[in-house]
Amino acid sequence: EIVLTQSPGILSLSAGERATLSCRASQSVSDNYLAWYQQKPGQAPRLLIYGASNRAPGIPDRFSGSGSETDFTLTINRLEPGDFAVYFCQQYGSSPGLSFGPGTKVDIK
Amino acid sequence: QLLLQESGPGLVKPSETLSLKCGVSGASVSTSSYYWGWIRQSPGKGLEWIASVFYSGRASYNPSLKSRVTISVDISANQFSLNVNSVTVADTAVYYCARLCTGGSCYTGPGTWGQGTLVTVS
Known about the structure:
The complex is a heterodimer of chains A (109) and B (122). By secondary structure, chain A is mostly beta strands.
């Protein structure tokens, strides 16, 4: 089982700043099948990034993903009010099993 | 357009069995390109994969839940189901059904989720 660790747990920033979120895997993620999700209270997670660096349809280019093997990063440029949420990473390279990181909360400073 | 809709009781008593169904429209559960699965999220907590099933009926389970969980697929009804037995308050969660990628289908993303249904054990 691949265990995902996210850091930091909470990131306090102001609108307009850049957010850098980290996701580390306990072993290499096959084919870089690593996704990032955004979740707001009361809503289902929304897919942002798949394959480590591919934006999902409709996701603005302020969101970008990078990394490979065990170290991955989600960067959000020019934070907007709607970006303050919880962000999860997910590996899906060990299909049919999945695993998720514990999440990073991006909140308003 | 693929739509996944969870259905089932919102309240289950401790020690009983939680039963959920996921109706699929816009795609066939008999595809060989995807798995069908369940994910849950306890209040204020993270996401946990529960189980996945292939159209053939081949199932995979999260080891931490395997002893209490059964997942199955009904091709004629184009739906799949989840049973969790001997539930406790710790099984209170939003349960999401999902179409999950496998092999080449993963090139276009990890899959699609339903909106989720809250199940309370009390």
